[in-house]
Amino acid sequence: MTYDTDLRNSFGLKLSLAVLAGISAYFLTVQELKTELVGKADNATVTAIENKLARLEANEREYRMTSHEFREFRNDVIARLSRIESLLEDSGGKQ
């Protein structure tokens, strides 16, 4: 009778460990995918900004701004870039 009880306890322990290993592998995979998506999102944001700046440079030749308009535009761009930088720092800290 002791042998049967030991065998059942051993099987239960092995089954429990297998289930825990599966669960931990699942959560590790999910976390890795989240980290990968954050990196891709950062690259997409940088690419979008580069494209917008390239279009701006192309359009700048066609349109002329007054110095006041340029200062407003510059301040707006600086504010947007600061917000993007803070978002990237926040998402980098969560990894």
How would you sum up this structure, described in words?
About 90% of the residues lie in helices and about 0% in strands. By secondary structure, it is mostly helical. The protein has a domain of about 60 residues. The chain starts with a helix and ends with a helix. The relative contact order is 0.07. The model has no long low-confidence stretch (mean pLDDT about 75).
Secondary structure layout plus pairing:
Elements: H1 2-60, H2 67-93
Sum up the structure in keywords:
single chain, about 100 residues, mainly alpha, 2 helices, rod-shaped
**Residue runs with pLDDT of under 50 for 5 or more positions:** none
Share of residues in helices: over 70%
Radius of gyration: 28 Å
Mean pLDDT: 77
SS elements, strand count: 0
> What is the terminal-to-terminal distance?
52 Å
Structural class: mainly alpha
Written as H for each helix and E for each strand, in order along the chain, the element string is: HH
**What composes the largest sheet?**
none
Strand content: under 5%
| Principal-axes shape call | rod-shaped
- Helices, by number, come to 2
